[in-house]
Design goal:
The protein contains 13 helices and 5 strands. It is α+β, with helices and mostly antiparallel strands. It folds into 2 domains: 177 residues, no CATH class; 123 residues, 2-Layer Sandwich (Heat Shock Protein 90), CATH 3.30.565.10. The chain has a 5-stranded mixed beta sheet with strand order 1-2-3-5-4, covered by helices on one side. The longest helix has 75 residues. It starts with a helix and ends in a 5-residue tail after the last strand. Keywords: Kinase, Membrane, Transferase, Transmembrane, Transmembrane helix, Two-component regulatory system. This is Integral membrane sensor signal transduction histidine kinase. InterPro entries: HATPase_C_sf (IPR036890), HATPase_dom (IPR003594), Sensor_HK_TwoCompSys (IPR050482), Sig_transdc_His_kin_sub3_dim/P (IPR011712). One of its GO terms (cellular component) is membrane.
Length: 387
């Protein structure tokens, strides 16, 4: 039980399996080559910067315009590089500075709206989303309010800045939302994968506990019997040791199949094994089992329950008699294991908890009664899965 708790603690602390580590792993993936390529891909949006200089193809800029335009472009590229280093998440002051840069260049070149459109695009990528929307609205209202002044430097530039800024900003907002949802979906997938890994580890832990608990109990009982017989009946002691070897080989095979999830346990086989184990422990076994053909899933769960119950009888009950009864009804299979042992209060360990978990998974249940006359375990496996 203690080792089981320590294993669970290790799984919870291990960032490769715990759900809390999923977001950390996804954040770490941002530095992977794929994410680095995606980050570099954002540099393609610099292709719109030359649109500012298109008017120079049919006119010669003055010295002041030339210096102001080149200085403005250099300053914008510096801001763009800074935002790119922030993984495309700009801060409010950076958006405002780019917007004001466009306004400041409006007296020199009709392409000034390129920078205000960039500002709208960056505003859409701000976090939180509420701030992004508010900033976009403020920038649009500012352009509308400054319309009379900006129209003097080119009506078309002002209209394009107003309309294309809104379109680009809205598109950027949608793209940002999509990226955020994709990231949340990736984190959710990581959490599902981590939970599946944890569940599989717990399943293997339960199965190994039940498989090895029963087999090792049988091995211990037969080894003790062989030790008592070796001085009086060497042949009988040899037979018991051969049975120990056979049980060990069988346990090895069961462990292998349990690890890969192909248990295939049958009630008929477990009933025979229970009879052998109880006889070796000098416990009188009374077994009554009706046919249960056609229900392999229920049989597999009840077989594991029978194995755990018989192991507990041999280990803890101190019983002289054990009754095992299997009764199929119209709606379920009912397994009853009763003994005349010491009884008393039962503290459920990992074996009984694993039994409950398996029965609950198929919609069944487990009832345990224990008093001074012994203990009684009733496991019910419905023939139809629970909703």
């Amino acid at each position: 039980m203690g080792s089981r708790a320590r294993d669970t603690d290790r799984m919870n602390k291990d960032p490769s399996t715990s759900p809390e580590g999923a977001s950390e792993r996804h954040a770490g993936a941002l530095t992977s080559p794929g994410r680095a390529f995606q980050a570099r891909w954002h540099l393609i949006w610099l292709i719109y910067v030359p649109f500012y200089f298109i008017s120079w193809l049919y006119r010669k800029p003055g010295p002041v315009e030339l210096v102001a335009s080149l200085a403005g472009a250099a300053f914008f590229l510096l801001l763009f590089w800074t935002i790119w280093r922030q993984r495309g998440r700009p801060m409010l002051w950076q958006v405002i500075v780019i917007f004001c840069l466009g306004l400041a260049l409006s007296p020199f070149n009709v392409g000034w709206s390129v920078y205000t459109i960039y500002a709208m695009s960056f505003a859409a990528r701000m976090t939180p989303r509420r701030m992004a929307i508010r900033t976009m609205i403020v920038l649009e209202v500012a352009l509308l309010a400054l319309g009379p002044l900006l129209q003097a430097h080119g009506m078309s530039a002002w209209v394009s800045g107003l309309l294309f800024g809104a379109v680009v900003g809205f598109a950027g907002l949608m793209q940002s939302d999509m990226e955020r949802k994709n990231q949340e979906l990736a984190i959710a997938h990581e959490e599902v994968r981590a939970l599946a890994t944890t569940a599989e580890r717990e399943r293997i832990s339960r199965d190994l506990h039940d498989l090895l608990g029963h087999t090792l109990t049988l091995v211990a009982v037969k080894a003790e019997l062989a030790a008592r017989l070796v001085s009086r009946d060497a042949e009988a002691a040899e037979r018991e040791m051969q049975a120990v070897a056979a049980a060990a080989r069988e346990a090895l095979g069961e462990v292998r199949t349990a690890v890969v999830g192909m248990r295939g346990a049958s009630l008929a086989f477990e009933l025979d094994k229970a009879r052998q184990a109880l006889a070796a422990a000098n416990v009188q076994a009374e077994i009554s089992a009706l046919t249960t053909d056609g229900h392999p899933a229920q049989e597999a769960v009840l077989a594991m329950a029978l194995r755990e119950a018989v192991t507990n009888v041999i280990r803890h009950a101190g019983a002289r008699r054990c009754e095992i009864r299997l009764e199929p009804t119209a709606s379920s299979l009912v397994l009853t294991v009763a003994d005349d042992g010491v009884g008393g209060k039962i503290a459920e360990g990992s074996g009984l908890k694993g039994m409950r978990a398996r029965l609950a998974a198929i919609g069944g249940g487990l009832k345990i009664q224990s008093d001074k006359h012994g203990a009684r375990l009733v496991a019910t496996a419905p023939l139809k899965a629970a909703p």
